């Protein structure tokens, strides 16, 4: 593996066989190595071991769990450079973004190490003199997760940290494109002292089998999924048979609004950060840009100039801002959406070209209508369609005109408008004069068909705890 000093992080690599899974660098198509594939029986055995391990883990104190998680956090930060290089090699994002994700992912370990100590119960005033009422909070049991390739470390730690802090065990299937980051994080957990079988990574190309197994297993009490809304619907249906608790962080179609009183330079900076981070392959990235008539031309000109200066290339190269798309399928979708938009009357202001390999130029489209197909679909690529609007009421209507409700962004200096619009946007998260809003201390999640539940903050711990009511009689 290229320039990875701590090779123990990649002990997951195996010899190539007919069943092993190749890990490919999207920047150049080269195979980085192979990981084992787990069949249904192997995964069932791992779930059983996780169930046994969880019973002992639940008996430890919150402080004992926190001590291990703090060591795990420190190991991630100590190995930040190696983890970042692994991530860039298998996922493609620029190295600076990978470093940032390692720190972001580690922050959940640090946060929930402490938050686990605050899984408080209650003493409730009783309606009867001879009774006392109280509640305690206990871990749900074995939790399972299916995580995506776009944030291969943070999407695991954001789920595993609260699960483990609550006293659960955790079984995760990472995306087939990015298993190395998952195995490296799990290896550091082991080095931090996490008991065996509490954090289990399973890898397979049979996503359907894993989804059905996780949903149908009576030994798994909770499923957390980050991915498309369509897959989320399937997992929810399959989980109904065992009445399993679910957390779903699904698709998005984030509006990015620039009002006539906005700081245009600040809005351009936020638009670049929100739209083109990870080559536009994030669930919370700006998907459609609504710009007031009065500032449309100024914003479009400054935005286009900033985008034209973004460097495209291998994420390991200095100064690269835009890495490759994850695979050929993603590139083909980006090309299709762009061509459909042009066919419907959009104008390419900058970019618009598919490059060699899996690279695609960051692109701005003008003369886009709210009814265009590219506005109605999650792009998940480096294309920014700009739509004009003239009044706040119509803007709110257009911004909310979607089945999704994950993230939204707007720029304004008017304090009255800020509160009015923030409350009117039908989204789980709103960024006001800020294009990057994710943090471990705030709840992350959506409304409508963008998901159920929250990750991060105190709410993230709640997802892995049951509340038990205890009535003491005969007092």
Automatic annotation (TrEMBL):
Task: Please report the stretch or stretches of sequence annotated as the Aldehyde dehydrogenase domain.
Answer: 16-470
UniProt xrefs under PROSITE patterns = ALDEHYDE_DEHYDR_CYS, ALDEHYDE_DEHYDR_GLU
Name the EC number(s).
1.2.1.16
List the Pfam families hit by this protein, alphabetically.
Aldedh
Q: Cite the InterPro entries for this sequence.
A: Ald_DH/histidinol_DH, Ald_DH_C, Ald_DH_CS_CYS, Ald_DH_CS_GLU, Ald_DH_N, Aldehyde_DH_dom, Aldehyde_DH_Superfamily, Succ_semiAld_DH
GO molecular function (one): succinate-semialdehyde dehydrogenase (NAD+) activity
Keywords attached to this Swiss-Prot or TrEMBL record, sorted alphabetically, are: Oxidoreductase
Q: Which domain of life does the UniProt lineage start with?
A: Bacteria
User: One GO BP annotation here?
Assistant: gamma-aminobutyric acid catabolic process
Q: Which residues form the active site?
A: 249
Per the record's keyword annotation, is DNA repair included, yes or no?
no
Main enzyme class: oxidoreductase
Q: Which family does it belong to?
A: Belongs to the aldehyde dehydrogenase family.
Q: Which PANTHER family match?
A: SUCCINATE-SEMIALDEHYDE DEHYDROGENASE, MITOCHONDRIAL
- What name is this protein filed under? NAD-dependent succinate-semialdehyde dehydrogenase
Annotated organism of origin: Enterovibrio coralii
Q: Coding gene?
A: gabD
């Amino acid at each position: 593996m290229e320039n990875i000093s701590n090779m123990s992080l990649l002990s997951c690599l195996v010899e190539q066989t007919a069943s092993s899974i190749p890990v490919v660098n999207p920047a150049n198509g080269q195979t980085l190595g192979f990981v084992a594939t787990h069949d249904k029986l192997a995964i069932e055995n791992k779930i059983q071991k996780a169930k046994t391990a969880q019973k002992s883990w639940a008996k430890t104190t919150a402080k004992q769990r926190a001590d291990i998680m703090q060591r795990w956090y420190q190991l991630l930060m100590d190995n930040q450079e190696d983890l970042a290089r692994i991530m860039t090699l298998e996922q493609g994002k620029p190295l600076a973004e990978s470093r940032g994700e390692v720190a972001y992912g580690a922050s959940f370990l640090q946060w929930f190490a402490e938050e686990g100590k605050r899984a408080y119960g209650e003493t409730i005033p009783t309606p009867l003199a001879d009774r006392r009422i109280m509640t305690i909070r206990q871990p749900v049991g074995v939790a399972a997760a299916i995580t995506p390739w776009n944030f291969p470390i943070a999407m695991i730690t954001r789920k595993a940290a609260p699960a483990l802090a609550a006293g659960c065990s955790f079984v995760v299937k990472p995306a087939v494109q990015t298993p190395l980051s998952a195995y490296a994080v799990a290896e550091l957990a082991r080095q931090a002292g996490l008991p065996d079988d509490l954090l289990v990574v399973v890898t397979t190309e049979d996503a359907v089998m894993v989804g059905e197994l996780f949903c149908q297993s009576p030994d798994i009490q909770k499923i957390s999924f980050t991915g498309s809304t369509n897959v989320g619907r399937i997992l929810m249906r399959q989980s109904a048979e065992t009445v399993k608790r679910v957390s779903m962080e699904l698709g998005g179609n984030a509006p990015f609004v620039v009002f006539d009183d906005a700081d245009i330079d600040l809005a351009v900076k936020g638009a670049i950060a929100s739209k083109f981070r990870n080559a536009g392959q994030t669930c919370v990235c700006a998907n459609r840009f609504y710009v007031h008539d009065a500032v449309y031309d100024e914003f479009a000109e400054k935005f286009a100039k900033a985008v034209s200066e973004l460097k495209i290339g291998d994420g390991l190269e200095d100064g690269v801002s835009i890495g490759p798309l994850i695979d050929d399928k993603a590139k083909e979708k980006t090309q299709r959406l762009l061509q459909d938009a042009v066919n419907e009357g959009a104008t390419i202001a900058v970019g618009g070209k598919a490059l060699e390999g899996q690279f695609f130029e960051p692109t701005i489209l003008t003369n886009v209508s709210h009814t265009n197909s590219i506005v109605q679909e999650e792009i998940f690529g480096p294309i920014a369609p700009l739509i004009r609007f003239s009044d706040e009421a119509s803007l709110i209507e257009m911004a909310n005109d979607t089945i999704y409700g994950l993230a939204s962004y707007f720029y304004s200096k008017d304090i009255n408008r800020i509160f009015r619009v923030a409350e009117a946007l039908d989204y789980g998260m709103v960024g006001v004069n800020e294009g990057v809003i994710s943090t471990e201390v705030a709840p992350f999640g959506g409304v409508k068909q963008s998901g159920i539940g929250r990750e991060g903050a105190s709410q993230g711990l709640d997802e892995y705890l049951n509340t038990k009511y205890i009535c003491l009689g005969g007092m």
